[in-house]
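INFO  loader      accepted 1 record
INFO  loader      residues=160
INFO  predictor   begin
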Amino acid sequence: MARPKDADEQKSCYSGKKKCHTVKNVLLVTAALIIVFLSDTYEGSAHDKRIADATPYPLPSGSRLMQDLGFLAFTLDGVEISMPTKKPRSGNLTDEQKAENRQIARRRVRIEHVNSSVKRCRIVKDTIRLFREDARDMVAEISCSLHNFRVRLSPWKPMG
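INFO  predictor   done
INFO  writer      dumping tokens
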């Protein structure tokens, strides 16, 4: 992402974790690995849970949602949430918790493959020098659409 000119906007887009100016989106992916929802684009310093709280998710009651520890206290009414068990500060996980975390990790790898498929369009991960206000959102939408097109042409093995 190109560094914004405005000092306040520049500060908000700086991601201390990646040591550069970034933006981020949140995706919802089906078991067939099709992207069904793309959030608005937020500055890189925004926390995942804050983005999730500000976004109305189109999940029907009875759905299952798999999320990582970045969404720790996030819940939706009528939706079963699956996430790894966090290691206690002064202890260890039980063997059952470790086995469950491994099962979740096997499924999460498939979602990470979707993320890398979206980033196959290099404009998503490289510096965007398009300064129109909604250009970054459009780039993200097009990249997700191309991923869905690729998956529909040559289906991936669904998550188990």
